[in-house]
Amino acid sequence: MAATAFGIRFLWLVVTAAFLFTVTNAKIPGVYTGGPWQNAHATFYGGSDASGTMGGACGYGNLYSQGYGVNTAALSTALFNNGFSCGACFELKCTDDPRWCVPGNPSILVTATNFCPPNFAQPSDDGGWCNPPREHFDLAMPMFLKIGLYRAGIVPVSYRRVPCRKLGGIRFTINGFKYFNLVLVTNVAGAGDINGVSVKGSKTDWVRMSRNWGQNWQSNVVLIGQALSFRVTASDRRSSTSWNVAPPSWQFGQTFSGKNFRV
């Protein structure tokens, strides 16, 4: 009797473990669909050519050459999520202010590429627009002018998360040196923002990378002379694996394109 009970318990544990393994490793079907409309405010920065938006807290560098152009925004603390929101895409439109909104209330699409820091020396409703807990977008000036008038300075907006639509694959720019790999991940479609990156050399197992800053991810494994594969996990928990995108002859400073998320 005792042996039978033990056998049943053992079988139950095996079945439960197998189920949990399957759920954990199952692919999430479908595509990223975005989120609901919410309220915030928007200002602008960077000049009429958006040259002042280059660089930024997400680490993307030259936004023109990276494909983001002027369709960008710096996010307040409440939206930036300590940098994990880098790459997320938003639709915005000016609302409830006929005096300062562009007629027809057109909408714009922008990618999060920078951080709008708080200014605690000024009140949140008078200059400290990015102070917590305000949800705020500091837009590249050309994008702001598509929805609001220049003289307004700040306008109320409705916004929502939307799927990112990007040309080509996810790009991996490899920097660092022998014992330190720093990989900048850009041009991510789907959810756009990523929560995890792993790398696999042709002579190693998968190695989980840690986020250094923005969308720069690091590992301390020697990978020189190996073909490299990358696995990117987005904020919606969907993953995309790019097999052997970098050949064994890769060099630091090079960029390689991999498999993107479906939209």
| Poorly predicted sequence stretches spanning 5 or more consecutive residues | 13-26
The main sheet orders its strands as 1-5-2-4-3-6
Query: Would you tell me the structural class of the helices and strands?
Result: mainly beta
Largest sheet: 6 strands, mixed, barrel
The number of helical runs is 3
Global geometry: elongated
State which percent range the strand residues make up: 25-35%
Gyration radius, rounded = 22 Å
Query: What proportion of the residues is helical, as a percent range?
Result: 10-25%
Q: Mean pLDDT, nearest integer? A: 91
Q: What separation lies between the terminal Cα atoms?
A: 56 Å
What does this entry look like structurally?
The chain is mainly beta and 263 residues long. The chain is 13% helix and 35% strand. The chain contains three helices and 15 strands. The chain has helices at residues 2-25, 77-80, 141-147, and strands at residues 38-45, 72-75, 89-94, 107-115, 136-140, 155-162, 171-177, 180-186, 194-201, 206-208, 210-213, 216-219, 228-234, 239-246, 255-257. The chain has a six-stranded mixed barrel. It has a five-stranded antiparallel beta sheet with strand order 11-12-8-7-15, with no helix packed on it. Strand 11 (210-213) and strand 12 (216-219) form a beta hairpin. It is elongated.
Record keyword descriptors for this entry.
single chain, 263 residues, mainly beta, five-stranded antiparallel sheet, 3 helices, elongated
